[in-house]
Specification:
By secondary structure, this protein is mostly helical. It is built from 16 helices and no strands. It has 2 domains: about 80 residues, Muramoyl-pentapeptide Carboxypeptidase, domain 1 (Orthogonal Bundle), CATH 1.10.101; about 150 residues, Lysozyme, CATH 1.10.530.
């Protein structure tokens, strides 16, 4: 009798346990989606992958800034809080309380939410057409990142017009620009107004190029909207798009002016630097990485503000 009674009690305990699990899961399904500053977990990771933020699983200031930018670009209240409305629109799957964990990065769908049509008349249509694929590939996928990126590209290329470096310097210009290589006008005179010769001189034995006599300085001179320069960079960029760029470097200027610039932006972590905000200080920091100084800073700041106001 005692043994039967014990079995009965164990059976009842098991039923109660299962009932509790059922009620808990049922309640869990009714919990609204809510992610905000300080949240952690797999839902946060999925959100970060979608927004192009490092998927560390912790909802910090960078994630909040990315959420606000996305909300603003998609007509939602930019409060940085991910509720049912933001989550549902972001993933276009309705309200999901327990999203499936993804094991590889998803396409950067947030690019589609950018107001690229607002850029018409401000940058060439040919450039606008290249933005979706370029932005998705190199995570320039929020209004803030894209505005910083375009401001640098626009200035470096003279308003998206130049896709190849102009090295047609006078002797005086060489001394002023490349004093390390041309300390005096007399030293610069033999190179005056000879771009190929100048490129081989100033880029020889640098950035993976051979000596001046190899001709690689001119072959791998600056091309693209942020002037990809040097054999090492051409090689790395080619690998990133699975194409042999070394045998046809002019394609950087003709076909990949924006893509090569985005590769440079991503490689140097400038897309993450852009997450720092819409301040002159952030533009200055990015400019120093792109230019090596602050040449044209006022113009870069002006265009950043112009593009950011359009995109956000």
């Amino acid at each position: 009798m005692v043994e039967k009674g014990l079995l009965y009690v164990q059976h009842v305990v098991h039923i109660i346990k299962k009932l509790k699990e059922y009620l808990y899961n049922k309640h869990k399904k009714n919990i609204d989606m809510l992610l905000k500053l300080g949240s952690e977990g797999e839902d946060v990771k999925k959100l970060q992958v979608k927004l192009g933020v490092d998927p560390i699983g912790k909802f910090g200031p960078k994630t909040e800034a990315a959420v606000k930018s996305w909300q603003s670009a998609n007509g939602l209240t930019a409060d940085g809080v991910v509720g049912d409305g933001t989550w549902g629109k972001l993933f276009s799957e309705g309200v999901v309380s327990a999203p499936t964990i993804i094991t590889e990065p998803a396409p950067v769908a947030s690019v589609g939410g950018l107001k690229l049509e607002k850029l018409k008349g401000h940058i060439p249509d040919s450039v606008i057409k290249m933005i979706p694929d370029t932005a998705a590939k190199f995570q320039i996928n929020t209004p803030l990142r894209l505005a910083h990126f375009l401001a640098q590209c626009g200035h470096e290329s003279g308003g998206f017009r130049a896709t190849k470096e102009n090295l047609n310097y006078s002797a005086k210009g060489l001394v002023g620009t490349f004093k390390k290589y041309f300390p005096t006008e007399a030293a610069a005179q033999p190179y005056e107004r000879q771009p190929t010769k100048i490129a081989n001189k100033v880029y020889g034995n640098r950035m993976g190029n051979g000596p001046e006599s190899s001709g690689e300085g001119a072959k791998f001179c600056g091309r693209g909207y942020i002037q990809l320069t040097g054999k090492e960079n051409y090689t790395a960029f080619g690998k990133s798009i699975n194409e042999d760029i070394l045998s046809n470097p002019d394609k950087v200027a003709s076909d990949y002016a924006l893509l090569s610039a985005a590769w440079f932006f991503n490689k140097n972590g400038l897309h993450k630097m852009a997450d720092g905000g819409a301040t002159d200080a952030v533009v200055t920091s990015i400019t120093k990485r792109v230019n090596g100084g602050t040449i044209g800073l006022e113009d870069r700041i002006k265009h950043f503000k112009e593009y950011y106001s359009l995109l956000s």
